[in-house]
Amino acid sequence: MIRAVIVMNTQGKPRLLKFYEFQPPEKQQELTRSVFAVLSGRPDNVSNFVEADAIFGPGTRLVYKHLATLYFVFVFDSCENELAMLDLIQVLVETLDRCFKNVCELDIVFNFNKMHTILDEIIFGGQVLETSSERVLKAVEEISRLEKSASSVSFVPKSVSGRFGR
Amino acid sequence: MNPFSSGTRLRDMIRAIRACKTAAEERAVVRKECAAIRSSISENDQDYRHRNIAKLMFIHMLGYPTHFGQMECLKLIASAGFPEKRIGYLGLMLLLDERQEVLMLVTNSLKQDLNHTNQYIVGLALCALGNICSAEMASDLASEVERLLLTRDPNIKKKAALCSIRIVRKVPDLAENFLSPAASLLKEKHHGVLIAGIQLCTDLCKVSADATKHLRKNCTEGLIRILKDVSNSSYAPEYDIAGITDPFLHIRVLRLMRMLGQGDADTSEHMNDILAQIASKTESNKNAGNAILYECVETIMGIEETSGLRVLAINILGRFLSNRDNNIRYVALNMLMKAITVDSQAVQRHRTTILECVKDSDASIRKRALELVFLLVNDTNAKPLTKELIDYLEVSDQDFKGDLTAIICSIIEKLFQEKKWYIDQMLKVLSLAGSYVKDDVWHALIVAISNGPDLQGYSVRSLYKAFQTSFEQVSLVRVVVWCIGEYGEMLVGNVGVLEVEELMTVTESDTVDVLEACLTGHSSDFTTRSMSLIALLKLSSRFPSTSERIKEIITVHKGSIVLELQQRAIEFNSIIQRHENIKSSLVERMPVLDEPAYMVKKANSSQENIVAGKSSQTSLAGTSVKLPNGVAKPPAAPLVDLLDLSSDDAPVPPSTSKDFLHDLLGIDLTNSSSSGIVPSGGTDILMDLLSIGTPVQNDISTKIVSSNQGFAPTTKPTFPTTVQVLDLLDGLPSNGSVAGDQSPLYPSITAFQSSALKIMFSFKKHPENPQVTEIHATFMNLLSDAYTDFVFQAAVPKFIQLHLDPASSNHLPANGNGTITQTLTVTNSQHGQKSLAMRIRMVYKVNNQEKLEQGQINNFPPGL
Question: Which residue among B25, B331, B397, B420 sits deepest, i.e. has the most Cβ atoms within 10 Å of its Cβ?
Fold first, then answer.
């Protein structure tokens, strides 16, 4: 089972935190900091796997990928295949890339909602849901379309009226 | 519209937070936003509910509390619009957890949404359920999810399948309901649904043995067919990762096969062909292919033994080891570690490749490989492997040396067959990486050398040679110092030369040079210096020609700024000057250290260390309570009741001098009294000697001060010597006691009287130090039988420190025809506020019958 997905930048600022086992917010921050401490100390030429027993409890491992200014980190237990997890990060990144057309950190910061939607289409409750980025994309696009059509009727007018009200 | 509700958009808030330069600024912005959101919530403002939760999710990610938004999520979920529902569910998953009662309130909305006509809303509800459902919700909504497993829409189907996993984990009893829908999912064509279905089956197997049986019987064929289809299928771009068709499906099927094959030879046999096909045909030049191979190997290792598959699997791992990709090498090592329990012979064949991985540039791979090598060594390959590793030690990274040294040492210790090889290898390690060698390792080396009389000369000479080139290696230096102190004359006299040795000439003054260098060298730490000082004392008696020079060196250290060293220097100086007659017996060679006892102790302490983390302190405290001759002191349980006077927990500063006295006596007593008899806990002497260097931590021994008399059985024959030794230390305190006659007089008291025993206390105080009182205790026997093995013990409250000098005798003649006297020094840290109090206990034998008396003394004269 996948325990957590963490996306953070190279300064250790969290950009997306998703824990599939509940952790209180302080604990989430603490875990993120420990993960960052481990990752920032690793040189580029080493493997992408780290034993995470000390951070997430016995038997856990993490796989990370360092792309541009971001770390993508998957934390999982002994039931998962490390190499496959690495591919799954690839699926996530590819999907983001197609969704945001050359994804960069800013896209993720301002669209963290959408990030969650994408992630929920790939990983579901700690299990792999879909590995075809095309299908993920289709689902996400459908959701944004629904969102837009709904908000064009109900949401936008409200916010416009809100602006006048101020 | 609420005038205080912040009109900022989500985007503006993120921008504002990003613009903050300090954490304090960020906190201020977040505080302001949170206040606005709170007031908006309390106004029940519907317009901004959606945006508020979106903001809260961002704030939550930054680690600020957001619990006040939880109810808002529920309201959003209950609203009709899709965007509201979506944010509501997202918020629900992030901001709430299954333990909160609020969550129960959402069950109804979830139920409605699971039955919604819009598949995306159903998807959202399933997703939330799959992420956070509690056991109650699982039971309430299981039937809805079960129904959704049968819908036609693949998107809903796969989510429902994964949601069932959560439900089954929460309520394992529901497993049988999901069994047949899960099995029918395996017949699907849609890859996403297949993957989800297979995962559901795997989880069903985990919670229920019946499910495993059922699936094994009905689905093995199907799984094999899926695997065949997917691995033979032509190019399917949608599920393709780097040219491999749907590696995830491969992996999930293989994993389920492993669960089904485990413990069932027939099923395993059945899978044989397809596993062999995948193991041999999958392309291994891409990560995805290797992921499949890796999973396949794990399955082959997991299922029941079938023909040559395991060798094939281990060969795949062997191939992985020479892969250029770090990740592949890493997983291969991990897997080999597991495989070694299954088939160690096959793993042995890849030993050389594994050894190469020890030299990898990636630290985590090196570490894995090293662990694996440790598992691979056995009697036959220990020698070449050790050689390889030691050679590598010379060129390895600094930060890897610690691990490498530890492994090499444990290999050497575990697998040596002849002692000379052990000593040689340890010497190599010490001179290459002596600074990384742990204390217990070089302690063990010393014990081993002490136990090999024919190798002592060889060892000390080799050590001397090694020292010339590697004097910066701390542990090596310590071993050298110890061995020169003990076996210096073998070094000079070339005693016990082995055939392989080259002869060399070392003069007496050369050895002193070495020790002096260790004593004064700026790289030497405190322990090394203390050891050098003792070794010098020993040499001064072995090599009379150097004794003048040694005396000078020791004299210099009388001014050392380190208290311990200064004290030793003064004591040693006094031994050299005033007690020439007993010096040689005082510094005789250590008795042979008890090897088995040390090994047991080492094993225990390392276990303890594992248990208590890095608690070397605790293990030290346990070992440092000792008797003069190194016999471990029996736990002072009987004394515990004496201690209940001491209620407050002020720590008592340890009295090191007393400990040292123990040490000194230890060396002396064992040599003069029990010549040839090895004391049972002989290794403790080594510990004693070494404990000079380590800060004394035995708070127990200072709280429970018991007289040296207490150990009469062993000390008895040497009693006169004991007095002499004390004598020589008299020089220290006596300086201060000149002005004794000016001190106020305190009346003597009868401290204790029973039908058998009378104890008188008389007091003496030094005016310059009113806290300290010297008490002279006189014991008198009132019966007509003499007492033997008389022991007096005393305990005081924590604010008082007590020091007991040895008693004049342990034999108390009958009818008051003689007395025992004993001096107690008490320091009352609350002098003037609290008076003295003491509990005492006397143990003695009358006609070989043990007697015990105890009492409390409250009648101390005031002002003490």
Answer: B331
